[in-house]
Amino acid sequence: MKYLFLFLFFIDSVFGNQLAGIYQSQSFLLFKSAYVEFFEFNGKYYAYGIENTDHSPPKKDSKNPNPYLRNRSDKGVVFLYGLVHTSADNYKYGKAYNFYDGRTYHIKIHQRKNGDLDFRSSIDSTGYIGKTFLWKKLTQDEIEKAGIKRPNFHEVLNTISELDL
User: Measured between alpha carbons, how far is 148 from 151 in angstroms, rounded to an integer?
Assistant: First the structure.
């Protein structure tokens, strides 16, 4: 039994869940393309914005319904939370705060074989009323070439307490 557990752990770590990493989001209307990092914490997945792909400066969270959070930056802050790995390439039950309009949306993700994401954001929990975006997973070479500098991860984790969970 011990060896079976070790074997399954090895298989999952090599071939399983590969969501953690840095992605380039897709531009859409007012949304700028940005570099975003997904990470696992306490059995769920979270994401935060690192920087805009055009290296424009971060903006204030001026649309936040909580007036105490309107002076925070839109980068280095967890905006996606509660995402659960539900099957081989699928993640559900997440929510994402949108800095552009101050609203929170339901999130479902399908990860393609190449690592890219079909990122579904919707106003309803079924995903019926929404839009799917393609987010490209970056390789280490692409991360270095783009000059992406991650913020202090401890400070990023602290922003989870600001979420309306």
Answer: 10
- Are the C-beta atoms of 66 and 58 separated by less than 8 Å? no
pLDDT of residue 128: 86
The token pair that represents 89 in the structure block: 């390439």
Tell me: the pLDDT tens digits for 15-38? Answer: 455 899 999 998 877 677 999 999
Strand pairing report for 34-41 and 21-24: antiparallel
Of residues 147 and 1, more confidence is placed in 147
| Residue 102 near residue 87 (C-beta atoms within 8 A) | no
Q: How far apart are CA 161 and CA 165, in angstroms?
A: 9
The answer to whether residues 150 and 39 touch, using CB atoms and an 8 Å cutoff, is no
Tokens of 138: 């970056």
